[in-house]
Structure formats: structure tokens, C-alpha cells
Design a protein that fits this description.
CATH class: Alpha Beta
Number of helices: 3
Number of domains: 1
Distance between the termini: 49 Å
Shape: flat
Structural class: alpha/beta
Radius of gyration: 21 Å
CATH topology: Double Stranded RNA Binding Domain
Strand order of the largest sheet: 2-1-3-4-5
Oligomer: single chain
Helix content: 25-40%
Number of strands: 5
């Protein structure tokens, strides 16, 4: 019986390894981003806080000021918008699109662009049911949090792409 379990475990492990599945690692940042200063209008925004947590997991030290050996990540836009997608026969909105728009650039300590100005826009659609108004508000909050998490991941993937381009 234990031999069968061992064989089953070996087959599962081999199939996972063979299918290309890998546990996601933290993003590898370019060597010039070992120390990073984040410039953003609202330093208490979720994006600023989440990046300040995510960058150290990727090996960078987030510092409070620009200086020698410090890369600068500058955000020029960080906005949410809610757009109407469709209107019902009663002239009320039925579907919405929640959009998250971010613009940023990254320069190294010498002021050279590591990542020229980037625009990222993520969106999620949802329907509005007047009889479920509380549920719609909760769904909107959940989608907002999901977009914020996805935005940080997308930014880190772009940073990782420049790290791989320099290898």
C-alpha cells in the first residue's frame, strides 16, 4: 500500500515538472534597482504601500529620498474610474467597467531611463442590480482590491523584464 502511494506521488511530481508548472518566485529586479525611491503624489495610497512591501521581497531596499546609488520610480498617474458600459430600458446603468490607470517611469541613480514612461490600464466589468445594491458595493470593493494587487504584479513583471533584457 505504501509502495503504491510512493509511486503515485512520484508520478504526480513528474507530471507537474513535465507540464511546465513552476511556483511563482518574487520578481528579479535589475542590479541598478537595489535601492529605490518611490515618487508618488499620494504616499499613503494603496499602490505606494503595496509597492513598498513588494519591492523588498524582490531584493530592493525602499528608501525615503533620492541620492547616490538610488533608482527612482516616479508615478505621474494613479487613478480609478467607473464607466457605464450599458443602459437598460429604464434609462439606468446596468453594466459598469472599473478602470485602474497608472503611469510611471524608472530611472537609475545616474538619471538614465531604465524603464521609459509606461502606461498600464487594467479593468474589470460588473453588472448593477438595484435589488442587490449592497452586494454591488461589496463587489466593487473586491474588484478594486483585485485591480490594486494585479497592478503591483504587472509593475513588478515589467521591472523583471528589463532585468532579463540586461542579462
Amino acid at each position: 500500500m505504501t509502495l503504491r502511494r510512493l509511486a503515485l506521488a512520484a508520478v504526480l511530481a513528474a507530471s507537474l515538472a513535465g507540464c511546465g508548472f513552476h511556483i511563482r518566485k518574487e520578481a528579479q529586479l535589475p542590479p541598478s534597482m537595489q535601492r529605490v525611491h518611490i515618487v508618488i503624489a499620494d504616499t499613503s495610497s494603496v499602490l505606494a504601500k503595496d509597492l513598498a512591501k513588494a519591492l523588498p521581497r524582490s531584493g530592493a531596499q525602499v528608501v525615503d529620498a533620492d541620492g547616490p546609488g538610488v533608482a527612482v520610480m516616479k508615478f505621474t498617474a494613479n487613478t480609478f474610474s467607473n464607466d457605464v458600459l450599458s443602459v437598460g430600458g429604464n434609462a439606468r446603468a446596468n453594466e459598469y467597467s472599473l478602470r485602474y490607470h497608472v503611469e510611471f517611469e524608472v530611472t537609475d541613480a545616474a538619471g538614465t531611463a531604465l524603464l521609459p514612461k509606461q502606461t498600464i490600464e487594467l479593468s474589470r466589468e460588473y453588472t448593477f442590480d438595484a435589488s442587490q445594491a449592497l452586494g454591488v458595493a461589496a463587489e466593487n470593493d473586491m474588484l478594486t482590491k483585485e485591480l490594486q494587487r494585479d497592478m503591483v504584479d504587472t509593475i513588478l513583471r515589467r521591472l523583471q523584464a528589463i532585468a532579463h533584457a540586461h542579462h
